[in-house]
Fold this protein.
Amino acid sequence: MAQNCFECKNKIDEHSEEQLKNCISKISDSLESVQKEQTNLREVSDKEAMDQFVNTKIGEPSRMGSK
């Protein structure tokens, strides 16, 4: 069963060695940028942390939806 490349959408079986290297390199770069973005999304700013602390102290629901 032939599978298509995620990068160029051509069949993987038809890739030359050079094309395989290029596609893998591009996919690797894309993965790195996604991982960096996930790291940025996980970071909580000082203001957001303080707001959460204050809201929890006064009984407001958190941004995660707990009540």
